[in-house]
Write a structure and sequence with these properties.
Layout lengths: L1 E3 L2 H9 L2 E5 L6 E7 L5 E4 L2 E3 L10 H4 L12 H19 L1 H4 L6 H6 L2 H12 L5 E2 L2 E2 L1 H4 L5 H11 L2 H27 L5 H22 L10 H24 L3 H25 L3 H33 L3 H8 L21 H10 L4 H12 L4 H14 L15 H15 L1
Helix pairs in contact: 3-6, 3-9, 3-11, 9-10, 10-11, 11-12, 12-13, 12-16, 13-15, 13-16, 16-18, 17-18
Length: 418
């Protein structure tokens, strides 16, 4: 991940007077600049180069997380992290008011696809929509859409099974908000021991909220799209729990949790791909899972990389890190992002649809989620091509072959075998 710095800091980097700090073990860059001669840490990054715009993981965690000094000013970025997580969970679970439980409507899924969800997040951020009891008024949010959407919302509101799910989510969100508010107050405690005790108690509250979001009843008889939304909410809670450990300086635990969370996201993504049964669901899942794996996982990996580096610092270096002025390093998430622009993931997916069919697209999504899964498909293609005399379709160098070709060939030979 490449970071953007304030103009004066970037000028120093360009001139060679400053350098971007690097984790010597992993080789990854950190969102931090220091003086080449003195080694003094100068400033944190203010953004990310390359248009990173995570769906649920705030970029601040990867950069601003290094800056959590034990002062009220130093916690201002943490408040923004918490606000981002709070809004994300509210928006993500609100979209279930259109997805529903059990059956789903293709039109409803398109109304809360990746692009529409990002728009809803922006509307909540700009206070154009309010999250109340964990849900947005979806009728208000989609008042300009057609009658069919409005009727679908009305039908779900009267659906007994969805009401049960909604009740669980309301309780879960309530526990989450209570924990967030308590966390903000705890950060103002001057006594470090009192603060850490309070953070430990808050962790317990968050775990209760997480248990609600992971309630098996939320996943019974639920389509892949609805499962994804509930999993995203749970993942945001997991990030918040991890943040409480970082605020207590428990960096070993933070690294372990971040590693486990990334593995969990990949595992659940594979489960979702396997459970996807229709083109409408795949239209919903593909761009969103691509966003999660290209952006959110990159942010979590960057966060883990930064904390891992911080663990290697000496007490004197940690002191220097804390002395960086937290003012003037406002985090900017993707300043060139226009909410009206169609996300690149949707554009990419629409292009793939012109070259592939449903099963091939599912396989391509698997390759993206778990790259190692492609190896088995390569071996199958090579074997079948040799057996059937299509040796030209068994390349020696698979690295040059794009996922779409591998998936299409795999499906081609599978069809010939049946």
């Amino acid at each position: 991940m490449l970071f953007q710095f304030a103009p004066a800091i970037q000028a120093g980097i360009n001139s060679g007077a400053l350098e971007v700090v690097q984790n010597q073990v992993t080789g990854q860059l950190l969102g931090l600049a220091r003086d080449k001669v003195t080694g003094q840490f100068i400033a944190h990054a203010v953004g990310v180069v390359g248009g990173a715009n995570p769906l649920f993981a705030p970029v601040q965690m990867a950069m601003g997380g290094l800056q959590i000094a034990q002062t009220h000013i130093g916690f201002q970025k943490t408040y923004k992290i918490l606000d981002t997580l709070q809004n994300s969970v509210g928006v993500l679970q609100s979209t279930t008011a259109l997805i529903g439980v059990g059956t789903f409507a293709g039109l409803a899924l398109s109304a809360v696809n990746l692009h529409q969800t990002l728009k809803l997040k922006e509307d909540v951020k700009q206070l154009r929509l309010e999250v109340k009891n964990g849900f947005i008024d979806m009728k208000k949010a989609f008042k300009e859409h057609n009658i069919e959407i409005a009727q679908h919302i009305e039908n779900l509101a009267n659906d007994i099974e969805f009401k049960q799910h909604r009740t669980i989510l309301i309780y879960a969100y309530g526990h989450f908000i209570e924990a967030i508010n308590w966390l903000k107050n705890s950060l103002q405690l001057q006594n470090l021991s009192d603060r850490n005790t309070s953070l430990s108690n808050i962790e317990g509250m968050l775990r209760k909220s997480l248990a609600d979001y992971n309630n098996p009843e939320l996943y019974n008889n639920t389509c892949a799209a609805a499962k994804l939304r509930r999993m995203e909410c749970a993942q945001a809670i997991e990030q918040t729990i991890t943040l409480t450990y970082q605020l207590r300086g428990e960096y070993d635990v933070v690294c372990d949790r971040l590693s486990n969370l990334q593995q969990k996201i990949r595992y659940h993504s594979i489960e979702l791909v396997d459970s996807c049964q229709s083109e409408e669901e795949l239209d919903f899942l593909f761009p969103e899972l691509q966003r999660i794996h290209n952006h959110d996982l990159a942010v979590l990996d960057s966060w883990q990389n930064a904390v891992d580096w911080q663990r290697s610092l000496s007490p004197n270096e940690l002191k220097l890190l804390e002395n960086i002025d937290p003012n003037g390093s406002e985090i900017i998430i993707n300043p060139d992002f226009d909410i009206d622009d169609i996300p690149s993931e949707i554009i990419h997916y629409e292009k793939l649809k012109q070259e592939s069919h449903f099963e091939s697209l599912r396989q391509q999504l698997k390759f993206m989620v778990e790259p190692n899964s492609r190896r088995e498909h390569e071996q199958y293609i090579s074997h079948q091509a040799t057996e059937l005399g299509y040796k030209a379709l068994a390349p020696c160098n698979w690295e040059k072959i794009p996922d779409v070709t591998v998936a299409n060939l795999y499906c081609y030979f599978k069809e010939k075998q049946t």
